[in-house]
Automatic annotation (TrEMBL):
Binding residue positions for 5-methoxybenzimidazolylcob(I)amide: T377, T383, G407, L408, G409, V410, S471
InterPro entries: Ac-CoA_synth_d_su_TIM-brl, ACDS_complex_subunit, AcylCoA_decarb/synth_gsu, Dihydropteroate_synth-like_sf
Keyword vocabulary terms for this entry: 4Fe-4S, Iron, Iron-sulfur, Metal-binding, Methanogenesis
Signal sequence range: none
UniProt keyword 4Fe-4S, yes or no: yes
Ligand binding ([4Fe-4S] cluster): C18
Ranges of residues in domain CO dehydrogenase/acetyl-CoA synthase delta subunit TIM barrel: 72-478
Protein name: Corrinoid/iron-sulfur protein large subunit
Pfam families membership: CdhD (PF03599)
Gene Ontology terms: biological process: acetyl-CoA catabolic process; methanogenesis
PANTHER family for the chain: ACETYL-COA DECARBONYLASE_SYNTHASE COMPLEX SUBUNIT GAMMA, PTHR36214
GO molecular function: 4 iron, 4 sulfur cluster binding; iron ion binding; methyltransferase activity
Amino acid sequence: MRKAKSPLDVYMYLPNDCEKLFGKSKMTMASDLVSRRIRLSEIKDALLSQKTPESVRDFEALTELLQPTISEIQIGVGERAVTIGGDDVMFRHTLSFYNKTPIAVDVWDTMSDAALSERVDKIQSFKKFYVGEFLYLDMIAVRSVSNNPETFGKCVAAILKKSNMPLILCTKNADVMRAGLAAAAGQNPLMYACDMKNRMEMAKLALEFDVPLVVSANGDLNELKSLAAALQKAGVTKLVLDPGAGCGNSEIGQTFLNFIQIRKAALDGDADLAYPLIALPIASWRRSAKEIRASAADKSPMESVLADAGYFETMTATALTVRYADIMIIHGLEPYEVLPLLHVTKMIYTDPRTPASVEPKMYTIGNPTHESPVLFTTNFALTFYTVESDLASSNVDCYLLSVNTGGLGVEAAVAGGQLTAGVIQAGFENAAFDFDAMACKTLILPGLAARLQNDIEKEMKVSALVGPMDSGRLVKWLEENWPPKNKT
């Protein structure tokens, strides 16, 4: 299969009247398609509007060129649906990783109604504000512990009454799976899992309910490839591969290698393995179960055993996120277990070609007046939201200008010349901010921009105060230094 590696690869297949159709030049459209800022499906109708054999051939060529090497699979429906897969590269810095890894947390069908309701509520209400947005858990994995179709079906139905999160149905018993699929009809859940023993029954269910299916071979990659190829021939094309679920110190190394080998083979052209990969850090708790039984005999503290399982699960999950896990199932719900994983997935799945930045403009924090302090920082997202959070959490009323430095932090922007007195003055002018209307014609600088103090005072005709190096000390600094003794 040919792959588009540059805008020139798709340029020749776009119509000459792109400016008229899309309001962009032909080369800009080619660049947007290759970088996935625009999806081909979004412009399909316009490209095929001429209804000529040439336009159909060009669209088919574009479809082939822009098709991701790793298949994209959708799980769930509606606004909470997730898409997994869709990558083209081994390393993030080569292009980018797409479709952030969704995190599923488990529940099981032998839980009491009250315990199930409480855990589902905890899963869907979990959120953490980080660099300008909230991070959430994405899915619920429903495990069949009872191995009873009726019990499993009731559990799935109860979850769907409380939540619209996508589901993973976990059982290798085809009769139990059918009950779960019937209860989740129309919700497009992910089936886990099909192996050599149940492949015929699970394939029939996947086709009957038109849902994606996980293929598992207990870490045997040759068997996994053969099973995936057989399912494709049977017409099951929405597949997710399970490279194995090693949970011991020695086993995790092999699991890690399995993920790498499968992804490299897929990107090198092995179509049987060109599917998303599922990771099971939850297997760490299986190891812990053995240790719990051992701890009962030697009187070891059970709390330490459980804490170790949570630690090992988080460590495994974060490691596999970096190495191609497209979806994963975990058990731990404590903040110290979940937050590292949410932060890693957020960072790995940002586009390395685009700095994380906020809109450069004047922001008001709280309810500032003409007597409130005026500060600035850069529009690097991590810097801005750290400063904004430190001020807002302490109920400081102030004006905070985000200066356009191209997404660079303060120290780098000062050193590289992206943050100068002229740039800062232009930022205040664009925001139409009038220092003459303030009781104190004073601007507070970040400590890392101290060298700009004299230039700012000369160019902007204001008094410049150098704040602390760390915004965590900014509130105390304001208490001690605001308002300034000498108002100008």
